[in-house]
Known about the structure:
Elements lengths: L3 E5 L3 H9 L22 E3 L3 E5 L6 H12 L13 H6 L2 E4 L3 H5 L3 E3 L1 H34 L10 H12 L2 H8 L9 H12 L5 E5 L7 H17 L3 E5 L3 H4 L5 E4 L6 E2 L6 H12 L1 H5 L2
Helix pairs in contact: 5-6, 5-7, 5-8, 8-9
Amino acid sequence: MIYLESFRLPDAEAETDFFLHITRTCYNNFYPFQIFPEMGLTRLDFEPVTILCGGNGSGKTTLLNLLAESVGAFRASPYNRSSFWEDYLRLCHAKLAPGAKTALKKAKIITSDDVFDYLLNVRTLNSGIDSKREELINEYTSAKYAHFQMRSMDDYDQLKKVAAARRGTGSAYVKNQLMKNIRNGSNGESAFEYFTREIQEDTLYLLDEPENSLSPDRQLELLQFLEDSARFYHCQFVISTHSPFLLALRDARIYDLDTRPVRTARWTEIPGVRTYFDFFDAHRDEFERK
């Protein structure tokens, strides 16, 4: 499904025209101006899956942030802006598919910071749960073996604890009074779970390096999840990534931001992917050794 059809960026002439009409002269940083014309990039056309690939500083995250602002995508984490951000954004134009505005009300940008915050929250919650679990184990031991006599209704709560402790095991006592620890595995497992929870059907998602925190196996699972979401659940994705696994997403349009001018490429043509291929090919004998 395609909700965002294309995105136009100002060319060199439009940027020059803008600066001829401003009176501010106290800035030495005009970000995000003076980036994309030098790359020969003035337009992006989108498929159900579009990938932005390039080295650090190639403009991947900037493009995602511009897209997010242009379509009104929800974001949880703040991002770097500049005094010229709004000026630049006004020179950009997002072309939407007919009838896409309703679906884009649910659009979302998911960044590495969002995933990190989620993992941190899980750890914080688990730390509290673990601490409470120890308290309950001590409480169970005291209640089960302590001599107790109820003298007034003020002791009723304690009586219930004693009865519960004497009815069953310590694990059953703790389980009945404490929510399950939501930590089911590694950071990678929790990060993958985060994407499956956040990504719903029928809208646009902008993903900034989603492979962070994911092992190769989990990256392959994410690849399958994203393919299924695009194919069966009418999602559209724009993804910035270095991952050779995600670059292999089925039928993805890939923009290589390291080329001049920027062009589309097959995933097997991306230099980073070729580096992996050449390395493993050079060690083929070791893989095939019996």
